[in-house]
Amino acid sequence: MVPIAFLYLLLQSQAPAVPAIVSDPDYPLRVQLAQTGSSTSFSRTSAWGHGNVLGPPAEGFDYTADCNQRFAPRPEGNQYFRARWKKPGQKLEILIQQFGSDRITACELKVAMQEQAYDLMPVVPRPAMMALARPAVPVTEADPNFPLRVQIWVRSSGSSSLTGSHAEGYGNILGTTPTGFDFAHTCPVRLSMGRGGDIYQARWVEPGLRMEILVQEVGTRQENICEMDVGTKTTPYEAPMPSPRIVPPPKTPTREAPTYNSDVPPPDR
């Protein structure tokens, strides 16, 4: 029998898959990805990060993925994954191809769309302990233990530490008389900077000083409670104007060799 530790090391050393070099009409979208964290079990690789569905206009998103095959994000230059919507705005499927093989497989990404596209370059490798936490969104199913409704704008988001991902920003406690507040928190998951004033279920831990909000990882029902240190204001904040979408500039035709994802017929599957 092969030792479990050996199988684990084998999986860890497996070369990551890359974008499939095909032109498949069933996968009309082009997607660029940046990976900000990952973990490996004995049977699957879990990854998360953010990316863009190329346009114009380009559309940004956060994602989580659980696939049998590790894949290498390719946000540089003209690199992209062929993709299609499985559930518009919620689930994307990309085509990946193993190194040294014409075997092509599909990998599903669970996504949360953003107000604007991401600037994916440059991509700087992060130490394992400093990877960004999994992206999170508000829990939509009502929870009576969290009676408040708060609207939040994340101003800055930092790398994870042993205790989680740090973020700062501002928001409003909604109601008949809205109340503004500033906040700072450290949480096991990451609140996205790209979303425009998400509304979370919340409750006071210490009125006027500390608050808890209810969140869930993108594409899952895994809930987390994030505690915030807050400072309340005398007036509510006005919603900021959304930033314009980042549209990649048009490419100038050249006589160079074809790019990695040149349109070539798919191999027999």
**What is the number of domains?**
2
The count of β-strands is 15
Run of helices and strands: HEEEEEEEEEEEEEEE
Residue windows where pLDDT falls under 50 for at least 5 positions: 1-13, 123-130, 241-260, 264-269
Radius of gyration: 21 Å
What profile does the largest beta sheet have?
6 strands, antiparallel, barrel
Strand content: over 45%
The separation of the N and C termini measures 32 Å
Helix content: under 10%
Mean of the pLDDT scores? Answer: 75
By DSSP (H or I, 4+ residues per run), the number of helices equals: 1
User: Structural class, from secondary structure content?
Assistant: mainly beta
User: What is the molecular shape?
Assistant: elongated
Q: How are the strands of the largest sheet arranged?
A: 2-3-4-7-6-5
Write the layout of secondary structure elements.
Elements: H1 4-13, E1 18-19, E2 29-40, E3 45-53, E4 59-67, E5 81-87, E6 91-97, E7 104-113, E8 135-138, E9 148-161, E10 164-173, E11 179-187, E12 190-191, E13 198-206, E14 210-217, E15 223-232
Parallel strand pairs: 8-12
Antiparallel strand pairs: 1-6, 2-3, 2-5, 3-4, 4-7, 5-6, 6-7, 8-14, 9-10, 9-13, 10-11, 11-15, 13-14, 14-15
What does this molecule look like?
It is built from one helix and 15 strands; from the N terminus they run H-E-E-E-E-E-E-E-E-E-E-E-E-E-E-E. By secondary structure, the protein is mostly beta strands. A hairpin with a 3-residue loop joins strand 13 and strand 14. The longest helix has 10 residues, at 4-13. The radius of gyration is 21 Å and the shape is elongated.
